[in-house]
């Protein structure tokens, strides 16, 4: 199966691998300093009106908005087409706090928000937002500090007995849930995203830093020809969310997000119809789950162990959970995962996931399963939403160590709806941590529930009856050069296959207990 070559060829043809918006094409006609439009940059005055005036003039005449060194306290900044915003060294945009600074963010616009949460359903209630914009760049070594943003927001108005929240949250009280998911009325005037893009095209985000980005540091929905490169994000919830995007490249980014996912590809119904995420390349990125803020200051704190969903810290690269439109032609390559959950590839809302390649990934201190592929049947969508599919997933050259010994690599389809093909090559997994004493894994689970409608997480099935690889309801499983070892004694079998058709294994040494 020659998927990587064909997929990269498709991305190149679509423009995702070529530089977007050469600098000569932006800002050639003028330079517009936000201070000339009234910005103070003193951390006290509200400077968003000056930013919006400079952006409007740059859009009208064509040019570059300059943000010199300073501390600019802002509410909503509204992007327009054909502009370039450049942060100079020492420039910081600080998200204002409505409770302290006598203003408010733009109100959330009407949106079809039944099947996805509040954060995914709105864009204007953000520090920086743009809708239907083209040919835009935001770049430079500045900082976006979401000090006055909230990480909270209501859940989806769609309600079901299962599937709305991870099973790890089942023990939480209604008050606990309400603290994380306030009512819609409580969100009026608040900002809960650092940067939000809706249906944009030909957009580059490059070189800056985001600290504490709210619900999403970056949310891009229905956006095409998008380049996100060399960003540093240390945030209190999601890092980069790519929802229904097309022809998108994320490269050279560092994302620390202990409370939620680091880099995520989704395909929700936020635009009112099921649209796939397609032709997406994520490469040379680093995700982690250190204490929030400590990647940026270099201390790499490890005091936090549990995320708000009552599972271990998050910080991973994931496809899902919102998956109505599916994903195709997605590559995750040359990335590192540190002190976070492993790679998760999920479709549970009727979408098809096909042609996905993950290669050359390095993982250390993996807080749940290193690899998780799930076809589920949550069906968070309108009547008629069916079961999705998973086809042609290739995972290769994975080196994962310090894995939580409860969670093997897990590939789980459904009875009657198997995952159609998975290839694994050159995989090296080490469970447990040398020099750290832990109790052996509990006795094996004899019968694993299907949990078809449950929210997908590696921990959803509990302790599985294999310590290295557990596979259920899969056709055409190919495994070559799969090396696995466990540091602690484990009574479970290393590999367990249940309802797996046409499995092929070769070059698969397994070792445990110092053997």
Q: What this model shows, in words?
A:
There is one protein chain. This protein has helices at residues 3-14, 48-61, 98-101, 118-121, 174-180, and strands spanning 31-33, 42-46, 63-67, 70-74, 77-78, 83-87, 91-95, 128-131, 134-139, 143-145, 193-198, 201-206, 209-211, 216-221, 224-229, 232-234, 238-243, 246-251, 254-256, 263-267, 277-283, 286-288, 317-323, 327-340, 343-347, 352-366, 371-375, 389-403, 409-412, 422-431, 466-475, 477-486, 493-501, 504-506, 510-512. Residues 12-28 have low confidence and may be disordered. It has a 23-stranded parallel sheet that branches. It is mainly beta and 515 residues long. 8% of the residues lie in helices and 41% in strands. The longest helix has 14 residues, at 48-61. The chain has five helices and 35 strands. The radius of gyration is 23 Å and the shape is globular.
